[in-house]
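Researcher: I'd like a structural prediction for the single chain below. Treat it as a standalone chain; there are no partners to consider.
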Amino acid sequence: MLETSARLLKLLSLLQVRRDWTGPELAGRLSVDVRTIRRDVDKLRSLGYPVTSLPGAAGGYQLGAGAELPPLLLDDDEAVAVAVGLRTAANGTIAGIEETSIRALTKLEQILPTRLRRRVQALQTHTTPLNAAGPTVDPETLTVIAAACRDHQQLRFAYAATQGEPSKRLVEPQGLVHTGRRWYLVAWDVSKQDWRTFRVDRITEEPSLAARFTPREPPAESLGEFVSRQVASNVYTYQAVLTIHAPLHEVAERTSPMAVSLEPIDEHSCLLRTGAESLDRMVFYLLFIGLDFDLHEPPELKEHIRMLITRLRKAVQA
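Model: Treating it as a single chain, here is the predicted structure.
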């Protein structure tokens, strides 16, 4: 059985991992009885941790927000992940967070054990970020969205789409996806009665919370794959569908998941979907992939390719 001090630290760690626990669940994790859990919770409260009791037959506990931020317990991998994340945020796409990230990183690295500081420094030394210009996102907006996803609360916000007038949206948020350059929200659009992908930088005002909702079945097993399919073609003027005569893994190595959507056909070929604002750009991208393919859609692209072939043939024969 854990000593009292060690058990308190373990209990605090469990409360920080999950939103709420029942008394029996915590007792089982710590190999003690429910009465001991109640006493330990009282000790945490006396130390300033805002542990609230939940109603119900089994009872429960939740670590809530307090007037001050209590200490957080991080294991080795979590500490390294936080340090690396703060370094990335200092050069990231979240507006106004760079200086704050550096201050937080300074505090964290000051107390990191030597073994962990070396891991973080090794990652920093041997990693070169490729900073791409792009829109930034208000960190408060991300925080509100993430909390709504966690608590299953609807969101209201004003949205400026690529084309068309700004609109008011009411959605059931499913999750956030970060592509390295942009943040996307995957949500069920209540008025459209369908799944939609929203660029967070196009949310023109801080979202407000609305009613709670019952979670739906996600639109895909992976939200990243869903966003990839949406962004790869749906937002562009021209959408292309073609069969690539190469295994899916080989095509994936030559393309970006934010530029194409891939589906396996067999061991030697796959279906590729992509989009572009112009036919010239699409032809250039398909040639850049450097693999044989059969073009299925759109018919305008086929005609454009024939025209380019004629032009290139004349240039070679001249």
